[in-house]
Amino acid sequence: MRNKNRRPELETYRDRRERRWERLGLTHIKTCYMVQKEKRDNE
Question: Which of 32, 30, 11 is nearest to 21 (CA)?
Answer without folding.
Answer: 30
